[in-house]
Amino acid sequence: MKKILPILAFLIATYSFAQTPCENGMAGQYPCNGLDLLSRISLNTFGTDRGNDSWGWTDPLDGKEYALMGLGNGTAFVDITDPVNPIYLGKLPTHTDSSTWRDIKVYNDHAFIVSEAGGHGMQVFDLTRLRNVTNAPETFTEDAHYDGFGHCHNIVINEETGYAFAVGTSTFGGGPHFVNIQDPVNPVAAGGFSGDNYCHDAQVVIYNGPDSDYTGREIFFGSNEDRISIVDVTNKNNPIPISNGFYGSVDYTHQGWLTEDQRYFMIGDELDESNFGFNTRTIIFDLSDLDNPVVHFEYEADVAAIDHNGYVKGNEFYLSSYRAGLRVFDISDIENQNMVETKFFDTYPTSNSARFDGAWSVYPYFASGSIVISDIDRGLFVVRDHLLGVNDNSISNFAVAPNPATEIVTVTSKTEPIAQVEIFNVLGQKIMDLNFTESLSENINVSNLQSGMYVMKINSTTTKRLLID
């Protein structure tokens, strides 16, 4: 118990940004649609004045979820297993100087961190150390360091092969610098590729897409300033360029991600909005033939913000869009050149203009459904798609009042008798299960519930959000 008390004291003193449902287009001060705010941690809490990249790690031992956020002066590690009550566990300081740019990826329970700071190289941090933090927030030390390059813009990892690809270094003309990380704390230089311009960001996969000529090969998809670059990197000693993809009104080819069937590559150009006047533009390449990538179509959103990092999960595309925050698109009909914005959470509520503030990146891959947004100005956000995946049934036979409640909440019905009331917390755990003798009004004692947001299910059919003060 004594080990837990310092963490609890820190939480009470630090976290004031509690869960807020998205109602009538707002979650507190933040414009939204379909995404609830579960929590936010400010940059001040992290001891920095600037945020950047983010990634995530799920502990295979117990399923706990952790957000990893890049800062100007290091990397923050946050336990978001309970996303309403995140625990800032500590920071790994930068290896050299502070920098606007820091990038993080995960392989084999280790974080690999690079930065544009001079001489930074690649830090390696054993994430299993987060299991044993008893005096948060701690100041961590790196478990290993790779100095085969100094500054580095970004890092990409193919978890299937255990290779990291550092891009935007001073080596290989800024092209990918290969590192064998199969033994994470003993990274080994493995060559590189300098044959196709400076690379800003990339994705590397074992290819299983529609072009059977490359099935089973390790393919590198680079966003290389004015083009996409496709390279066969199966043999690290002999990487083979395959093709380039070009598009109109190019200004700075920034970052891209494959659809799950590996047929399409969705990229963003970081400067086309500010320099050409586009609304947020996504260019979708058809990669049915890797030797001949062609533009399938271009999509312009309703806002003018600059797009930054985008990731695909299933039939959804999660795009961090700077001043417009996180934007989520349905891409299930991408074959017919259709994509539709379905949800958003705007972390920069004062403007959607084409400037470099707001949401830097997003991590949508947690099994719980929690989504991490790292914001340059406002820190770490945790949001979720309609709490527990359940929508309020606002038009129903049942009413819940008062809401928010403190001690007693009353459920009433005009016609349908109340037979059962279940209450779930934000983790989806059932914490109350009450059965009644089919009356039209029931009082429920909620005084033992902690402040926060819950879901109430009535008669297994109607769901209501319940707020406890």
Automatic annotation (TrEMBL):
Residues 402-466 form the Secretion system C-terminal sorting domain. It comes from Aequorivita aquimaris. Residues 1-18 form the signal peptide. Keywords: Signal. This is Regulator. Transmembrane segments: none annotated. InterPro entries: Choice_anch_B, Secre_tail. Pfam families: Por_Secre_tail. Coiled coil: none annotated. One of its GO terms (cellular component) is extracellular region.
